[in-house]
């Protein structure tokens, strides 16, 4: 990112341009993998947008270096233009990252177009100041020696992009430490850590402004996000977008090794009643819709400011909830709430069939430990008793 002041030194241009071309090449590979991937979630779309804008930003940095180094004849209009592109694109990339971070954390504030527009206001203000800098000189201007100098409001150009990243980071860390959600923590920490490298290397580049540090920091951060997001996708069931069986095994094994004071460990096995009839009568596509709706109903039931639940899809029509509660009565109440919320789906979605579930409950005894498979088998056995007794 260009910083005001300094002198021209043609020797650095080659290395500066080379570094940004290398970063563009790496980002092109990531963008290609995202575009060709089977995952078309909104978060992946936003990540692709961040990468694309960063590539444009790196091109703008190359243009700036060519102007600053005298490869392209330097004059006032070109000096203004090269800096306008870099500052505006960096702000846009940071704004999209903020929207992406909120999407990854399932914050509904960014779902509405109006809210996204309101959140983008700092970008518009920063852009307007850049575009009018030639006339006003408020954020930067070219002095009589044809040198770029910071204006009275130059700090805004720094605060806006890094402000978005820092805000996203703070929100993510707060959520990571305040929410008792095992699988979400990797996402929260990823979002929290993301700005560290770009900000640190960006600060160094502000001091040594002809050394291409920020581009490496940005690429490293984006690569970290891509790898973490991919790992997270591997841990999710592709249909219902909740944890898969492997993640459930990891979490359950961890909980069976460490007892929480004052809490008992419960495993609830949820099975959709007569899902085969839905598939046979209405088709497997409708059966998939029923699975997703039941998963969402269970997820909604398990939400809460003090919830200690881990939800996963266990098999074709089975779900597992791992819960830490004080009493078995709480687990029974949770099972009843799940049944009630699932039964309301027919009314909510106007389906031509009724949906119900059966729930089996098992409580883990830390004084008489058993294997993970045996613990699951206890819940499965209780589920079978519920079905046989016709308790829906």
From TrEMBL:
Gene Ontology cellular component annotations, sorted alphabetically: plasma membrane
UniProt-listed SUPFAM superfamilies: Nucleotide cyclase (SSF55073)
Superkingdom: Bacteria
Keyword NADP included in the entry's annotation: no
Transmembrane feature ranges: 12-34, 46-67, 79-101, 113-134, 154-174, 186-203, 209-227
Any one of the GO BP annotations: negative regulation of bacterial-type flagellum-dependent cell motility
Annotated GGDEF domain residues: 263-392
Entries under Pfam families matching the protein: GGDEF
CDD domains for the chain: GGDEF (cd01949)
A Gene Ontology molecular function term of the record: diguanylate cyclase activity
Keywords: Membrane, Transmembrane, Transmembrane helix
Protein name listed in UniProt: GGDEF domain-containing protein
Natural source organism: Butyrivibrio hungatei
């Amino acid at each position: 990112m260009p910083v005001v002041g300094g002198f021209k030194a043609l020797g650095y241009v080659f290395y500066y341009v080379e570094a940004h071309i290398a970063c563009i090449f790496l980002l092109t590979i990531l963008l290609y993998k995202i575009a060709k991937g089977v995952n078309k979630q909104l978060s992946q779309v936003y990540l692709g947008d961040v990468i694309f804008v960063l590539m444009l930003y790196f091109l703008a940095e190359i243009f700036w270096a060519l102007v600053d180094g005298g490869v392209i004849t330097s004059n006032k209009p070109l000096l203004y233009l090269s800096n306008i592109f870099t500052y505006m694109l960096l702000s846009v990339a940071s704004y999209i990252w903020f929207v992406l971070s909120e999407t990854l954390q399932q914050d509904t504030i960014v779902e509405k177009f109006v809210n996204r527009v309101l959140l983008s206001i700092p970008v518009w203000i920063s852009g307007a100041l850049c575009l009018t800098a030639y006339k006003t000189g408020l954020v930067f201007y070219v002095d009589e020696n044809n040198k770029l100098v910071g204006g009275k409001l130059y700090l805004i150009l720094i605060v806006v992009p890094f402000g978005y990243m820092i805000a996203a980071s703070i929100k993510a860390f707060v959520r990571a430490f305040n929410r008792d959600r095992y699988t979400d923590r990797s996402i929260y920490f990823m979002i929290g850590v993301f700005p560290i490298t770009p900000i640190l290397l960006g600060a160094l580049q502000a001091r040594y402004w002809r050394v291409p540090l920020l581009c490496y920091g940005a690429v490293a951060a984006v690569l970290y996000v891509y790898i973490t997001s991919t790992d997270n996708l591997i841990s999710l069931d592709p249909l219902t977008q909740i944890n898969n069986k492997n993640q459930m095994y990891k979490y359950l094994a961890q909980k069976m090794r460490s007892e929480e004071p004052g809490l008992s460990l419960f495993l609830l096995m949820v099975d959709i009643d007569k899902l085969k009839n839905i598939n046979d009568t209405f088709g497997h596509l409708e059966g998939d819709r029923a699975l997703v709706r039941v998963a969402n109903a269970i997820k909604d039931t398990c939400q809460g400011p003090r919830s200690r639940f881990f939800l996963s899809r266990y098999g074709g029509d089975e779900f597992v909830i791992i819960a830490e509660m004080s009493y078995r009565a709480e687990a029974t109440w949770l099972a009843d709430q799940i049944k009630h919320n699932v039964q309301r789906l027919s009314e909510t979605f106007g389906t031509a069939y009724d949906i119900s579930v059966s729930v089996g409950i098992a409580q883990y005894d830390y004084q008489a430990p058993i294997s993970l498979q045996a613990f699951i088998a206890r819940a499965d056995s209780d589920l079978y008793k519920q079905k046989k007794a016709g308790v829906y």
